[in-house]
What does this fold into?
Amino acid sequence: MSDGQVVVALDVGGTGMKCALVRPDGVVVRTERHPTDAARGPAAVVGTILDVAGGLADKARADGLTPIAVGIAVPGVVDEARGVAVWSANVGFRDVPLRDLTVRRLGLPTALGHDVRVGGLAEARLGAGRGTGHVLFVAIGTGIAAAHVVDGTAAVGAHGAAGEIGHILVRPDGPRCGCGRPGCLEAVASAAAIGRRYAELARDTADAPVTAAEVAERAAAGEPLAGQVWQEAIEALADGLASGQALFDVATMVLGGGLAQAGDRLLTPLRAALHERMTFHREPQLVAAALGDEAGCLGAALLALDAVGVRDHQEKR
Ligand SMILES: [Zn+2]
It folds into this structure.
């Protein structure tokens, strides 16, 4: 491979875009952040994506580098084979042929991916799951979603919707999920659900709204109500992860998203709860994500490199 090659990587979220130029060995040579400003509507967001990607390619050339491909990660339902952003609640995409638009504008091979799947790809190949072959990456934030990565490739599913672990049924009589069904994992154990549950039970003590991180903190400080809410969430997560292990038999589960920032307050009790649920299944290693909010952008870069057949990452070590 010639020197100076880079890919243009964008991770488009509901509020911001994380963007980078990344070398084939995974080293990031430039990063940028831009507001998504989704309220402007999908057409304007697409315009910004193309402008930012084009700008990064120009900056690479100005620095004597050669952009060889573009990788773009977006949330929602993504048809990776056709390169279409099918649907997204927070960015407003409806059947946007983002890959073809980018190819037309930049003249570079382009890959489109799903934000959680490419985040899992990055964690499995460059981050906390590195060197372990079979990885389940679980992002726990406002919702819960996962990516199953085997030997460096994330399963997409027949309809682009693999990994929706947040909609595993864990509490049939539980709160209603955003998808319409009661008792889904993310209706019980997402960061948003934990905050809601605490607020509901603490109503009489009239506390201000509390985040999941604060619930974890209060639980650690010995507050009984917070301890109860936190433990309920841990038990539900363990049920979800046990189902994941029954399906995928992975070596490593990597926990990412906002809730994983609770660190050992999450991991220690969750390991114990998962251990209790293992019968004949081998217990996976449960670890925190290593790449933070860079994972999506790095994963978009990996997707771009894969698209042009360049695989020269540190994971071979
Ligand atoms: Zn659901």
